[in-house]
Amino acid sequence: MASHLLPTYSRVDLAFERGEGAWLIASNGDRYLDFTSGVAVNALGHAHPELVKALTEQAQKVWHVSNLYRIPEGERLADRLCEATFADTVFFQNSGAEAIECAIKLTRKYQSASGKPERFRIITFEGAFHGRTLAAIAATGNKKYLDGFGPAVEGFDQVPFNDLDAVKKTIGPATAGILIEPVMGEGGVRVVPNGFLRALRELCDKHGLLLIFDEIQTGFGRTGDLFAYMHTSVTPDVMTIAKALGGGFPVGACLATKDASKGMTAGTHGSTFGGNPLAMAVGNAVLDIMLKPGFMDHVRKMSLLMKQRLAEIKDRYGSVISEIRGEGLLLGLKAVVPAGELVDALRAEKMITVGAGDNVVRLLPPLIITEKEVGEAIDKIDRACAALAKTQRKQGAA
């Protein structure tokens, strides 16, 4: 039977009916180890009891009131996010792409409020991914996302990854800010060197630009700290977050310093559903868990274990995997074979992963993954690589 869903996804013929921690149970009863986490969304796994409790309790009170009125749980979550980060202000919305839109508007408005309305352009980087709205795909600059949608939204200048000279040459009288992911997830799990980020900070300070970090995928413990900027020695002016903020419930946010957000006065931005009581209840529950002593220590410990074991697999199967990338539990396998073949081989071992650019397979387990489950994942990856290596030998012999 044909689906009435708009066919914009190449979906795998696999459906899940429930989840338990790091596991998903398919409609036929098969159990899959989830190393996709809804693409870095389900950071606390599936059906986490504290998240279920928070959502259920709030659902019995009030779901939606609109931002015409105060939302106390949203004020509390904003306070906690600012206390835990560099930020002074927070705007809540429903997704990462909306957070990017807010950051773009905030950056342009900052320059206008500073008496420089001619400054509206934002420098971005080749291989980045910032979302699917018209402005976000223009910021991303990838031709395959732009084709067929008319003229790209004006105001974005892409430069090569990690090319400081190109950034310097691109800064001009109309430049308003620089937008970058500390780790390019979709772009192949490429870690941006700290020195490059420091140089961007210096350029922004020198030229009066805002530095924007897209931490939609790296945020909320994914790299071993609450946010990736925390281990770079670089503090942005603006930061976009989403994905793991709601642990699976749709919510995003744009964080900024007081100075950076000075142009965003009453009426300059809005969101009907943004910061609704359901999302805020879950967001606070996520923070409750992630801010507990030892939580990030566990992430870092599991990351080290994963990297050590993956390095062993790379050494054994160099014809399948050439490099291990990433930070924390945002890891990438740079494949020698087509990355899609490795994704398929892992799924055959009842483990789900997700591809990325640069022929990379991302490993994005829930941050609550146990040492035993890491061992199971390594066994599955080993078997998948063995199967692919065997196929290579057969093809070579033929």
Number of strands: 17
CATH top level label of one domain: Alpha Beta
| N- and C-termini, Cα separation | 40 Å
Q: Which stretches are poorly predicted, pLDDT < 50 over at least 5 residues?
A: none
C-alpha Rg (nearest Å) = 21 Å
CATH superfamily of one domain: Type I PLP-dependent aspartate aminotransferase-like (Major domain)
**Pattern of helices and strands:** EEEHHHEHEHHEHEEEHEEEHHEEHEEEH
Order of strands in the sheet with most strands:
4-12-11-10-7-5-6
**Number of continuous helical runs:** 12
The amount of helix comes to 25-40%
Rounded mean pLDDT score:
96
Largest sheet composition: 7 strands, mixed
Assess the beta-strand content as a share of residues: 15-25%
Annotated CATH architecture of one domain? 3-Layer(aba) Sandwich
* Shape, principal axes of CA atoms: globular
**What is the third-level CATH name, the topology of one domain?**
Aspartate Aminotransferase, domain 2
Helix- and strand-based class? alpha/beta
Task: Give your account of this protein's structure.
This protein has 398 residues and is of the alpha/beta class. It has twelve helices and 17 strands. Among the domains are: 50-290, Aspartate Aminotransferase, domain 2 (3-Layer(aba) Sandwich); 297-317 and 379-389. It has helices spanning 37-40, 49-59, 72-84, 96-113, 134-140, 143-146, 164-170, 194-207, 277-290, 295-316, 339-348, 371-397, and strands spanning 16-20, 23-26, 31-34, 89-93, 121-125, 156-159, 175-180, 183-184, 190-191, 210-214, 238-241, 252-256, 321-327, 330-335, 351-352, 354-356, 360-363. The strands form four sheets. It has a seven-stranded mixed sheet with strand order 4-12-11-10-7-5-6, with helices on both faces. A four-stranded mixed sheet has the order 1-2-3-15. A hairpin with a 3-residue loop joins strand 16 (354-356) and strand 17. Helix 2 runs antiparallel to helix 9 (277-290), helix 3 (72-84) packs parallel to helix 9 and helix 10 runs parallel beside helix 12 (371-397). The model has no long low-confidence stretch (mean pLDDT 96).
